[in-house]
Write a structure and sequence with these properties.
This protein is of the alpha/beta class. A hairpin with a 2-residue loop joins strand 10 and strand 11.
Length: 180
């Protein structure tokens, strides 16, 4: 099953500095919600895949992310541990492969997005199932310590927006599509 990634990067493809995002762009969060929530078929939902640490970095009042199937990956699934937040829209997996396989068997999933997971972004850039890269580009060198590798040559720019400014930060939304 095809999947997508969605992320924001600085001028040097930086993603994180000391495990945090260095910019505050409410418009980027609104874009993220729109892209990961909206479907063309109202009978379907999108799924978001995130690491356990990401899940717990989201305030409990915003978990699970609404209008999406939330897939949490962890190598440490324990029954009586922190996993008590069981919900019809939250699924737990011990590997990305298992998660994708399970989602592929579901008839009600329209799109899959890997979110807020810097290490995995670089691992999946060359995966043949990666379909689109949704990227917010930020005109600012944050001197990040985690960066996205170069986008492979078999991705082309499908669309982009004009540059805008929010909180004194210039940004633009870009979509790359696999062409092979």
């Amino acid at each position: 099953m095809k999947f997508n990634i969605i992320l924001a990067v600085d001028e040097k493809n930086g993603i994180l500095k000391r495990n945090t995002v260095s910019w505050n762009l409410p418009s980027d969060m609104k874009y993220f919600k729109k892209i990961t929530s909206e479907t063309s078929d109202l009978a379907k939902m999108n799924a978001v895949i995130m690491w356990r640490v990401t899940w717990f970095s989201i305030s409990s009042k915003f978990r699970p992310l609404p209008d999406r199937i939330n897939c949490i990956l962890s190598r440490e699934l324990k029954q009586n541990d922190i996993w008590s937040e069981v919900d019809d829209f939250v699924l737990y997996f011990n590997s990305l492969e298992h998660c994708l396989s399970e989602l592929e068997s579901k008839q009600n999933i329209e799109n899959i997005f890997i979110i807020w997971w810097a290490d995995l972004y670089n691992q999946v850039l060359t995966n043949p199932m990666l379909d689109k890269i949704y990227m917010t580009k930020i005109k600012w060198d944050v001197d990040c310590d985690v960066s996205l590798n170069k986008i492979p040559h078999n991705f082309i720019v499908e669309s982009y927006t004009d540059w805008e400014i929010e909180n004194n930060i210039e940004y633009s939304f870009w979509v790359y599509k696999r062409v092979d």
